[in-house]
């Protein structure tokens, strides 16, 4: 890896589905109200992953690999959904 | 709130500082190798928050409010750092 060859990174965002109660997020929203931040009407909490990928991986291969990892390993498909971005 | 007036949302991403060991991320990276995803060389895990803000809030006020909430409530400044985006 040369100095000018930054590794490819994938950012994966996993959140509870809209229909699933987010108790932790509601607790944070309530705390914010008590802490005098009334402008926040709702909070949803999720997980955020930064995956560093091998340099040799082509963009398309990286995309399908990240999708597979996100859907099979990082997300519980019963209650969660994910989005991701690839950064090169 | 009319149908055409979507509430403003802030996306806050909290991650461990680069210098802090991310044991959970390393565990995920090891699991991925065992699960035959060798293209992933590193994983960092963080938290992701979606804050829904009051409609009446101006963009600048929203920005400073989100920065205050992220730095004072959502982030432990000793070991974590945050970034955020505002979406209207």
From TrEMBL, chains A, B:
Signal peptide: none annotated. It is an enzyme of class 6 (ligase). Keywords: ATP-binding, Cytoplasm, Ligase, Nucleotide-binding, Purine biosynthesis. Pfam families: PurS (PF02700). Its EC number is 6.3.5.3. It catalyses: N(2)-formyl-N(1)-(5-phospho-beta-D-ribosyl)glycinamide + L-glutamine + ATP + H2O = 2-formamido-N(1)-(5-O-phospho-beta-D-ribosyl)acetamidine + L-glutamate + ADP + phosphate + H(+). It is found in: Cytoplasm. This is Phosphoribosylformylglycinamidine synthase subunit PurS. Part of the phosphoribosylformylglycinamidine synthase complex involved in the purines biosynthetic pathway. Catalyzes the ATP-dependent conversion of formylglycinamide ribonucleotide (FGAR) and glutamine to yield formylglycinamidine ribonucleotide (FGAM) and glutamate. The FGAM synthase complex is composed of three subunits. PurQ produces an ammonia molecule by converting glutamine to glutamate. PurL transfers the ammonia molecule to FGAR to form FGAM in an ATP-dependent manner.
């Amino acid at each position: 890896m040369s100095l000018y060859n930054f590794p490819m990174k994938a950012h994966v965002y996993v959140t509870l589905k809209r229909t699933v109660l987010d108790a932790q997020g509601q607790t944070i929203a309530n705390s914010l109200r008590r802490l005098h931040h009334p402008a926040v009407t709702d909070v949803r909490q999720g997980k955020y992953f930064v995956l560093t990928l091998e340099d040799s991986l082509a963009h398309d291969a990286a995309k399908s690999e990240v999708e597979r990892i996100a859907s099979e390993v990082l997300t519980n498909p019963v209650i969660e959904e994910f989005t991701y971005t690839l950064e090169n």
